[in-house]
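task queued by scheduler; priority normal; single chain, no ligands, no partner chains; default sampling; output format set to structure tokens
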Amino acid sequence: MLPASASQAATSASDDPSASLFAEQPARVDTLPAPKLFSDVVKRQWASPGTGPLPNSQDKKLYAITNEFSDLLQVPVVDAPVVALASSTHLAGPPEESLRPEDKQAERTLIKGHQASAWAVRITSAVSFFNRASILWLKQLQDRIPASDTRSHQDINKILAAVEFSANATLNMARFAAKAIGPSVSSRRLLWLRHWQADARNKWRLAAAPYESNSLFGSSLDPILVETRDDKKAFPVLSRRSDFRQPTYRNQSFCPSDSGSSYNRSSRNFSSRGLQNQDFQVRSNSRFPPRRPFRGGRGRPFRKSR
């Protein structure tokens, strides 16, 4: 039998709702080990954030992909109508030469980010391909093993589970790396649309349009561009409408006519204008001080002789 103090403590613990929080064991989340080698590689790349990827000849040989998929990952060129917004003259060099120095640096940095993400997509796609090929080879090997060899089947099933996980993980990595290209494209679009005389909503709508590779904007410019005289596509010229309106004047005759009503109307207009002119002369004369009397050579004013 428990003593009175122990029973009271158990009763108070059961009455306290927060006591169950500490009694329950927290759910454990299975995590994968991250060797120091991985963190060292990541930190080494972050030591120079302003530089782009530097693949060597071995990287280009190991992760060589088809031309169609490689062209899909290339940095898109800026559309000619958009370049014309930044520069009115035709430049023979690269399009970024028409930008300001600070915008030029931002453009080059965004291009490096695009190239880094493209290489991540290239490598993970190659790894995912070999992982899926390994799954087929392992299943073929498992079919040739006798059913009585249960130990070998168990080992192959473990290898299959690991390879399937690697295949799915690398495919997801390619998906996230491709998604990282999207913000780079949108940022470049906003950078080049600075010279477009439009509000922020229309600029963002164009910057967030679907990306089709090869061209920075592509077909998303078709609803906006207009044809010029030389059959080229260009942005429409926006002109501000002036709210100033030209005053309208009526020709009024000051000559009396046969009818008395028209004569009275014209004379009334003439008299009102005459009063306005007199009022203007009075107000204009009141702005200036009265004239001083003319002084002679010795500084004395002339006086009229009586």
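post-processing summary
- Residues 56-234 form a domain with the Helix Hairpins fold (CATH 1.10.287).
- Residues 101-144 form the longest helix (44 residues).
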